[in-house]
Amino acid sequence: MQKIETPLQDLHVIEPQVFGDDRGFFFESYNEDKFRDLGINFSAKQGNYSRSARGVLRGLHFQLPPKAMAKLVWCPRGRLWDVAVDLRKHSPTYLKWFGIELSEENKKMLFVPKGFAHGFYSLDDCDLAYLVDETYDKDLDANIRWDDPAFGIEWPIEPSLSARDQAAPSFNELDLTF
């Protein structure tokens, strides 16, 4: 397992060691001890799995304190454009974003720390698997507009959105503290 730094503080790409042959492959998607050895303090409390048709955008989602959550995300089927935005006011990368293609082929994962908004755009019919270090709390669930000019995210194309994501507030409408 290898940690690759991104331009955003505490946001990391994880490349697992893949063992494969003509029968298939195996890789460890999470190992708390190995993450700690990489300098990432993350202990999963919940695992989630979603499926999206091509052209769907989900996000930008996050959970508010006191149950803000870190995520480890990967794409076991298809391809997606994954994006994280730093919402931590005291971070040197505040309001910056990072995007990466995650796919069943490249097997890369993204570690998204607490205080980041997260979203993805499905480049193909795809699945997203993720582990989080807090349990879901509907009262602390929040989102921000995917196309908010405060971030300037470069999405691949015009997406299909849920009603929730269409109605998401802009960044300037929120008072966030992480």
Topology of this protein?
Blueprint (H helix, E strand, L loop, with lengths): L1 E4 L6 E4 L2 E4 L2 E4 L4 H6 L8 E7 L4 E7 L7 E7 L1 E8 L10 E7 L5 E4 L3 E7 L3 E7 L8 E3 L19 H4 L12
Antiparallel strand pairs: 1-2, 2-10, 3-4, 5-12, 6-11, 6-13, 7-10, 7-12, 8-9, 8-11
Architecture overview:
A hairpin with a 6-residue loop joins strand 1 (2-5) and strand 2 (12-15). The strands form three sheets. A six-stranded antiparallel β-sheet has the order 1-2-10-7-12-5, with no helix packed on it. By secondary structure, it is mainly beta. It is globular and about 50 Å long. The longest helix is centred in the first third of the chain and has 6 residues, at 32-37. It has one domain (2-173): Jelly Rolls. It has two helices and 13 strands. It starts with a strand and ends in a 12-residue tail after the last helix.
Note the total helix count: 2
Mean pLDDT across every amino acid position: 94
- SS content category: mainly beta
Q: Kindly, what is the distance between the CA atoms of the first and last residues, rounded to a whole number of angstroms?
A: 29 Å
CA radius of gyration = 16 Å
Could you list some keywords that capture this structure?
single chain; 178 residues; mainly beta; Jelly Rolls; six-stranded antiparallel β-sheet; five-stranded antiparallel β-sheet
Short description:
The chain has 2 helices and 13 strands.
